[in-house]
Every structure is written in C-alpha cells, then in structure tokens.
Amino acid sequence: MHGRNFLKFLKGMVLIQAFLAAVIIGISVDINFQYAEGVKILNTERILVPFTKLQINERQSELLLQENNVLLAGNNVANKTLEDEYSINTIPENIIGSHIQALAFVDRTSPKIAIAEPEPEDLPALLEENIEEDYNLDQETLARLKKGTVFLYCTHSGESYIPDSGQARIDGKKGLINQAAETLKDELNEKGLTAQFINTIHDYPYDSSYTKSRATVNKILKNNKNVLALFDIHRDSIPGQKKAPTVKIKGKQCAQILIVVGTNERKLHPDWQKNLKFAEQIYQQGEEMYPGLIKGVITKAGTYNQEFHPHNLLLEFGRDFNSLKEVNNSASLFADVLVEVFKEVD
User: Fold this and answer.
1) How many CA within 13 A on the CB side of residue 292?
2) Higher-confidence position of 225 and 36
3) Shortest CA distance to 147 belongs to which of 123, 128, 133?
4) Max intra-chain CA distance, the chain
C-alpha cells in the first residue's frame, strides 16, 4: 500500500515538473518569436557567433550592430534590426570599436609582419627658429609666437597615400603621412610660427599606437613650457571608396581636411569642449580664407590623448586615395589658417 502511494507521489512530481517545463518553454518560445519577427534571417551565423573564437570580422560586426545598435538609425526603423545597407554604410567594426576600447586599436585589415620593433626616437631639442615678419604679424604677436611651438606627430605613422606609395599603410615603417606632417611643419616655420615634427614611429605594434603617442605627448609637455598646439596628423579612409574628393583653391587641387575632437564618453576628459572650441575656431577661419579646405569638425568617443592639452587635435589630411601633391597643397593653405588663428588664441 505504501509502495503504491510512493509511486503515485513520484508520478505526480514528474507530471508537475513536466508541466512547469512546458510553461517555461512556451513563454520562452513566445518571447523568442516576438524577437524573431524583427530579424529578417535567423541564420546559422547568428547562432554560431557566440560559440566561435573571439575574433571580430566584418560580417560578425554587422550582425552585432544590427541587433544591438538599432537606435543609431533613428525613428524610421520598421523592423527591429537594421538593414544590411545601413550596416555597410556605417562601417560597423568602427562603431563597435568605439564601444569596446580594445577593439578600437585592433588592425582588422592587414596581417602583422614579423619585423623587429623600432627603437623609440629621442625628441629633438627645441630649436631656435629665425622668425621673420613675412606674414603680416605685428611685433607683439611675433614676440608672443616666437616663445611657443606647434608640435606635430603621427600616432599612425604607417599611414600612406595609395597613388604615390601603392598601399594605404606600411607596417613598422613611415608612410607618406609623415611627409604631410613635414610639409605642414615647413610651411608653419616659413610663415612665422615655430613648429617641430616628432617623427617617432608609434604604430608598431598597431594596437599600442595611442599608448606610444601618449608618451610622446607627455614628453613634449614636460620638456617645453610654451606649447601653442599639438596636432596628431592622420589620413582618412572609407572602405569601398577608391576616389578621394578634392577642392580647387588658388588653381590647385587640394585634399580636404577633417578635424576630429575626442569627448569624455569612454574616458575622463573634463575639458574636451576647450579642444572643440579650438577646432571650431580653426574651421571658421578656414571657411573665411579657403572655403571647403576644412571639411568639418566631428567628435568621437575617445580622447585621442587630447586630454593633456586644450589645443591638441587630430587632423585627417585627405583620404588614402588622395595624392601626396594634393595633401601638400592643403598643408600649405592650412598653415595660412593657423597663423591667423594664433593671432587671436592665447
């Protein structure tokens, strides 16, 4: 008798657990089906991505972007995921990199080349330049500017220009972006400012680029009392576009310049709006003198070492498909703009 009751008890427990499992599965399926209504294709890529190695490729970036960044598309999203076309146009791996700091410094395009890492170069001693009054500088401004220096450096030293070098970036070596920085330095010196280019290679290995350039920035500020500005010289690149825009100024084709300002979204940078104000001054002056030369000012979630000085900016001189000649033309005109800006900036 007791044995029968015990068996009935066990049977009842099994049935109760089966009922509860059915309820849980039913709720889960209902929720998943509601979610799946917004997913155009529930394919194996979406299922297998979490079980693969931690290796973000372009397609995986698109999938993550579509599912987790829907609001980036605004209020006109009919479904609950972004269209593939939107994903491609917004370069999803860069957006993901802006949220996950480690991924922002990962080179997802070029394989690593096994070459010895170059020794960091010492910063040159501060040079006394013979500043001549050849750009309408009054004596007071001339004396003030002579005491300060504009420093240029390249966090991504390997960046280059495809029409002249045949490739967009050279691992472990100096790309043509260094020549763009040299040209800007020379033009600034000719026009009355004191400028230096620190040509240290910072981007080998690539994922330590900003760590190394941060050391350069700190060394500059430690060794020099009057730093007028620091400019991190880069070139832009848009995947899939094999033609770079130019603007014609004074009869010459010039690459456009983009100014990038880091914010405090990912890292402490309480005074980032001072950097933004400085960038906007340069842009406005550029529009007055050479409309179209400076494409604009954008902000990005990353400080780019700009937290160390209110006049530290990231400048993108053209794109990878601009020619070096177009970039040098821009550097010459940009130097004119900076001279005018520094007449007013304290």
Assistant:
1) 10
2) 225
3) 128
4) 114
Q: The pTM is what? A: 0.62
318 vs 320: CA distance, rounded Å: 7
Query: Mean pLDDT across the stretch 91-106?
Result: 48
What would the two tokens of residue 11 be?
């049977």
Pairing mode, strands 312-319 and 257-262:
antiparallel
d(CA 53, CA 209): 25
139-344: CATH, from 3.40.640.10, 1.10.730.10, 3.40.630.40, 3.40.1180.10? 3.40.630.40
Nearest to 320 by CA among 179, 170, 168, 182: 168
What is the pLDDT, as a whole number, of residue 307? Answer: 96
Report whether pLDDT(117) > 50: no
**From CA 93, how far away is CA 87, in angstroms rounded?**
9
Closest by alpha carbon to 137, among 192, 190, 189? 192
- The Cα 163–Cα 253 span in angstroms is 15
Q: Return residue ranges of the chain for CATH 3.40.630.40.
A: 139-344
Percent of the chain surpassing pLDDT 90: 53
Q: Give 240: exposed, middle or buried? Use CB within 10 Å, 0-12, 13-18, 19+.
A: exposed
Burial per residue of 96-133, b for 16 or more beta-carbon CB atoms within 10 angstroms, e otherwise: bbeeeeebbbeeeeeeeeeeeeeeeeebeeeeebebee
Query: For the chain, what is the mean pLDDT?
Result: 77
